[in-house]
Every structure is written in C-alpha cells, then in structure tokens.
Amino acid sequence: MQPKLRVSSTSLCLLLAPVLFGLSCQPPTAGPTNLSGPGHWILGSNATFRVEAVSSRSHEWTSGRFGWGDGIGAWRDFAAEESALSDTHAWSSIGAYQVKAQLRDKNQNLSDWSDSLLIEIDSGPELGSQLLVGSYPQALLYNATDDKVYCANAGGTISVIGSSDSVIASIPAPGNPYALTWNQTSDLVYCALAGAREVMVISGPDDEVRAEIPVGLNPSALAWNRSSNKVYCANTGDSTVTIIDGSDNHIVATVTVGSAPQALVWNPNTNRVYCANANSDNISVIDGVTDQVVGTKDFIGRPWALACDTADNYLLAAGAASGQVAIFDAATEALLDTIHVGLQPVGLAVNYANRTAYSANQGRTTVAAISLTGLRLLDTIEVGPNPSAVLWSPAGNLVYAANAGSDNVAVIDGAANTLIGRFPTGTRPWALCRNTTRSRVYVANRISGNVTVLCEKTP
Question: Which residue of 13, 139, 285, 432 lies most exposed, with the fewest beta carbons within 10 A?
Fold first, then answer.
C-alpha cells in the first residue's frame, strides 16, 4: 500500500511558483490600504478621500482617521459589514499636502500610518453670498451694459441683482417667467412667460417694463440675433417661433417649426437660428434675413439643448432621450458625428481655450467632455447627482456643473478635464450664468428660492 502524499501549504506554494509566477500565498498585511483621492483641488472646497482596511486575527479594525497635512481628522467608525472609510477636508491655504490614513481596533490599538498621497491645493473661486430672490428661480441672464443679473422666478417675479451682488428690484411677472435673453443693441431684457402666452420686455437702465408682446402657446426659449436685431421666441405649445423686431418690438413673423420647440441658438457665422424640436426629433433652420424656415436637420433622440461652436462653425445638439450629442457642420448642414455621452444630456457648453464641448447628463452623475478637433469623447467626469446645467469660464479655464441632486456646484479643470472642487449651494441648483465684468458665477437654486454667488479668481 502506497503512503499518501502530504503537501504543506508552504510546499504547495513552492511547487506552484513556476506556474503561478507573481502570486503570493502570504496574507495581505493588516492595516490601511488603497488610499485614494484627488491629486489637485481648489482652496476652500471639501475633497473626499477613501481608505480600505485589511483586518487580521489580532486586529479587527473598527474606526479610522485621516491626516490631512494641516491637521488630523476625527476618528470615524466603519459602517457594519464595510471595510472602507471616507472623509472630506477643505484646505485654507495654498500648497502641497501629504494625506495619509490610520486605523484603530476595538482594543484601541493603532495601525501604522498608510503611505501618503500628495494633493496640490491652489486658488479657485470663493463661495460668496446667498441672495434671496423669488420663488422657484429657473433661469439667469447677465446684462453687461448695466452690470446686472436677471433671475426668472416661476412664482411670478423677475429679480434684478445689481453690481453689489444684492437684489435691487423685483419685477412682477405673472405667468411663469421661464426663459431670458438680452438685446445688446437696444439694451432690453426679454422674458418668456410660459403661462401667459407673452414675452415681457424690460429696460436695462431702469428695469421698467416697456412692452408685453403676445406670442404663441407656452413660450419656453428665447434667442437674440445681433446681425438683424431680432428676438426669437420658441412656443412649445403650438410648434411655432415668433420673430420680434428688436428696434420697436413689433412682430415680424411667426413661422411653423417641428413639434415642441425646446431650445434656440443663433449662429453669427451663417446668420441662421436653429430650433430644437423635442417631439419631432429634428432641428429647424431659420434664415436670419428672410425669417423663413430654410431647412431641417434630423436628430432622433429628443433634441433638448443647442450650442454653436463659432470657431469651427459647428452646431451641437443634445438628445435627452438618446444620450447622444450630435455635431453638424453649420456651413453644409451635414451631420459630422453622433457621440454617446451619458443618460439624459440637457445642457451644453463650449470651451474655446481647449476646443472642447461639455454636456450635463442629468440622468446620472456625469459631465461628458467632447473633443471638437477629433470629434470624439474625451472623458466622462463624475461631478454629482443630476447635473442640470453646465457653463465654461475663461477665468482659469474652469467648467461649472450645477448638480440638482446634491445641492452643489462642481468645478472642473478645463485643461485636464478633472473634478477639482465642489461648492455648496441652495436646494436644487438649476441654472447658471457668468458676470463677465466682475468674474462672478451665479447659480439659481430652484427649491430654496435663492441665488448662490461664486467669486472667481483672476490674474
């Protein structure tokens, strides 16, 4: 009878080593491991770091803490059945900091500190004031001539924010103020009243109502044509666009477009206005001289937002139902590419410094970055739940995303396309605009009825 072969675990490792090259039978060392977090962040904004714990027979870790380089955080308990721990920290001084983590077991025994991660903290925007406006603010507009910001409040007012970042006027506007545009030539602000079938005209110098223009059913988008000084109003309820002469505010024409026109944009290169028709899956092209619909661009997927890249003469359209951004050559009307960006893109912005376009993907937690030179997806950036709007600022080449689901604004480095900060806002941030004179970013918070001001740093 042959004796049974007994192989110890140590011998087994030696026998299998030639086959399983690079694998180890040694258990991982107990303690903190896989420390992760950003390498670049901005001053005054909370950055999140995460560490995992490896327990052993002698150490069952129950809590952990982080060393931030400018102090040590409080001990935080691990959640039941969890082996990872997160914490946030904001730095108050510019510089480079080494972040590390330490664990503690139920007997108060401490682990060694983990290896460090370097984080660079530099200057960025500062959180400014919170301005109380009307109920349900949902659209913002900056008037550079008078250095004022206008906020359309669905509850029935238009708030005017002056150069001191205080509310200087509240204009009654019954009928759900919904969209805004500014006529630079005449210094007039136009507000579409979605529930009143009219457009209100406000004088920029004195904020007096100058006219109330009857338009179509459910006016929901506006655009101004600088070449011809005309204002275009998309009437979602009756599939028309009303064209208004900006010099005396009389109606020039009313043209029929596709079903449920949702967004408008004017292209100065071609002097054409594009209208996104959400329910008919197409985009109407309106000639800025003849005021006639001269073409239609098909885009299946509920076109919801539009933007023009005037550098390359591209038209961009975000399909809220398809999760795609379509890029058209505005000169030839040809579709160049359709790029999948994420779930429910509802906002677009163009970064002229880096030739990049951004889409706010409200159905998830991301902003997509699209190369306008290669016409391809560059990055998908995690910003926070339900980004509803996106804005590019040349001051520091930053991109802002209003995260309606987490009540903050994410700040993206436009050169690296990485998240570098978040700032708290009011409840349900919904719209963004930028004061180009004083480098301010304004955020309309739809549920809390206020506007958050971010003060940008300029060279």
Answer: 13
Q: What is the pLDDT of residues 304-361, one digit of tens each?
A: 999 999 999 999 999 999 999 999 999 998 999 999 999 999 999 999 999 999 999 9
Q: Are 378 and 370 in contact (CB under 8 A)?
A: yes
Domain ranges across the chain: 31-122, 126-455
Q: Which of 419, 328, 373, 416 is nearest to 390 (CA)?
A: 419
Query: What are phi and psi for residue 323, nearest 5 degrees?
Result: 70, 25
CATH assignment of 31-122, among 2.60.40.10, 3.10.20.600, 3.40.50.620, 3.40.630.30: 2.60.40.10
What is the Cα–Cα distance from 70 to 86, expressed in whole angstroms?
Answer: 18
Length of the chain: 459
HEC readout, the chain? CCCCCCCCHHHHHHHHCCCCCCCCCCCCCCEEEEEECCCEEECCCCEEEEEEEECCCCCCEEEEEEECCCCECCCEECCCCCCEEEEEECCCCCEEEEEEEEEEECCCCECCCCCCEEEEEECCCEEEEEEECCCCEEEEEEECCCCEEEEEECCCEEEEECCCCCEEEEEECCCCEEEEEEECCCCEEEEEECCCCEEEEEECCCCCEEEEEECCCCEEEEEEECCCCEEEEEECCCCEEEEEECCCCCEEEEEECCCCEEEEEEECCCCEEEEEECCCCEEEEEECCCCCEEEEEECCCCEEEEEEECCCCEEEEEECCCCEEEEEECCCCCEEEEEECCCCEEEEEEECCCCEEEEEECCCCEEEEEECCCCEEEEEEECCCCEEEEEEECCCCEEEEEECCCCEEEEEECCCCEEEEEEECCCCEEEEEEECCCCEEEEEECCCCEEEEEECCCC
335 burial class (0-12, 13-18, 19+ CB within 10 angstroms)? middle
Least confident piece of the model among 26-30, 92-96, 204-208: 26-30
Question: What letter represents residue 348's amino acid?
Answer: L
CATH of domain 126-455: 2.130.10.10
pLDDT of residue 28: 52
Distance, CA of 204 to CA of 220 (rounded, Å)? 21
Same fold, 31-122 and 126-455: no
Residue with tokens 């380089």: 69
Q: 402 with 358: CB under 8 angstroms?
A: no
Count of Cβ atoms closer than 10 Å to residue 237 Cβ? 14
How much is the average pLDDT of 194-204?
A: 97
